[in-house]
Design a protein that fits this description.
single chain, Glucose Permease (Domain IIA), 2 domains, 9-stranded mixed β-sheet, 3-stranded antiparallel β-sheet, about 5% helix, binds zinc ion
Length: about 240
């Protein structure tokens, strides 16, 4: 498993090269519509347009966010009043849900940098901003296969889970577990920091399957139904 470790470059920077999913307009501000693309959720779309998901659902007569279909045309309420100033969300935040699910490694934080190519460099995880010292929790039960320092990652914890999954927690202020320990899902394993290549306190979080980095968003509950997990204003800048 340790053979899979690579030096993380450019971590903590923002994704300037990520293609940004912006609002699509009918051309008339009074009748703005949005055609649902694969991977989009009510929450994501509402965020893109700077409106509440409740309002978006009400206007479109949706009672359940799961009713959304690819290709469905949604009416966007309040178009023309700040709708275009909402921060767009980078493509990396849209990912289909995997059957295997982990829990969020922090109770509250802002999603600041998505998985994927960033300034020509692959970002193997997601970055979650929160204050220094924020407890970092095991995304699932597992065994600590690394707890120490790695170039780029700073203080780093790596957990091995059942069926070939590994989760990675980087830039920690302090690691609170040791190699060989077993941890429960949700157990605090570290404190958030800015060690290694980080521009400020954030958690660099990876999900790997058979040593291959996956988009963690596929393995986590939707931010819209996870209290405390929000998109940073600059998540696509
Ligand atoms: Zn990162």
């Amino acid at each position: 498993m340790l053979g899979a470790l690579v030096v993380l470059s450019a971590c903590g920077q923002r994704s300037e090269s990520a293609r940004v999913l912006g609002p699509s307009s009918s051309g008339n501000q009074a009748a703005l519509t949005h055609t649902v693309a694969p991977g989009e959720t009510i929450y994501h779309i509402a965020h893109v347009y700077g409106i509440s998901s409740e309002r978006l659902m009400a206007v479109n007569h949706l009672s359940d966010p799961r009713e959304l279909r690819v290709g469905q045309v949604l009416l966007i309420p309040g178009a023309g009043r700040g709708a275009y100033t909402a921060a767009p969300i980078a493509e990396g935040w849209f990912a289909p849900k995997a059957a295997r699910q982990f829990s969020w490694p922090v109770a509250a934080g802002q999603l600041s940098s998505p998985f994927g190519m960033r300034n020509g460099v692959m970002h193997d995880g997601i970055d979650i901003d929160a204050p220094e010292g924020t407890p970092i929790r095991a995304a699932d039960a597992g065994t600590v296969i690394f707890a120490g320092r790695q170039r780029g990652y700073g203080n780093l914890v790596i957990l091995e889970h059942r069926d070939g999954y590994v989760t990675v927690y980087g830039h920690n202020e302090r690691n609170l577990v040791r190699q060989g320990e077993t941890v429960a899902r949700g157990e605090t394993i570290a404190q958030m920091g800015a060690t290694g290549r980080a521009s400020g306190p954030n958690l660099h979080f990876e999900v790997r399957y058979n040593n291959r980095p996956q988009n963690p968003i596929s393995y986590l509950p939707d931010p819209g139904i996870s209290p405390g997990i929000t998109f940073a204003r600059n998540s696509a800048d």
